[in-house]
Amino acid sequence: MNETRISTHFSGSLSEPAGSALTLAPTRCERPLKMHTAGEFRSGGGGLEKQRGFTLIEMIVAVALFTVVMLVSTAALLALVGANRKAQALQSVMNNLNIALDGMVRGMRMGSDYNGSGDCNGNTTGSQHDCTDGGSIFSFEAFGGNPNDPTDQWVYKYDATAKRIYKSEDNGATFFAITAPEVTIDSLKFYVVGTTRGDTAQPKVVIEVKGTAGAFQNKTKTTFAIQATAVQRLLDL
Hints:
1 helix; alpha+beta
């Protein structure tokens, strides 16, 4: 232990003879002062506590744990982002199918002269244009069309080879697809009743669609089965 002693010397002493002023007598006073090094301070003794940092091993362990946590968090975040993108792509495909079917139903409701006899699998009503067993082709006169002009009728059909729904606005002369390539139509049937004028039933068509939908380069597929009904708004008198 290193110690430093500092001695302080005072010379003189106090004496007060009777009847005289106070005089200073020479005396000798030694007062040793002790100084400690920084390492000798302890908290228990009321001094400062010696500081201690992290070791190299502790730093390595902390960095390793932080790296593992960051890797796991990043992987989970990337998985969530990928799943969200796939869900949005699939939703976009299903929106395309819904828009196509809504357009079909809206046009049929506003149209007239329903005809389900094209590619009909069977009919039990006896009406020429009815199809109670379902068919893959349906035609009608669009709203604002000329009933006396057969070339302006709209036609919807199902192509089993391409597995898509096609539409024609010139009575089948030319067709164009109304469903996206990501939508696979496995089955499409039109059930048509009430096409005879003057009968007690209003013309009606029931559309039944089955298939699968999946976004491009997406292994996730959604199977759907949709049924829609369109009733002619124009009174069948």
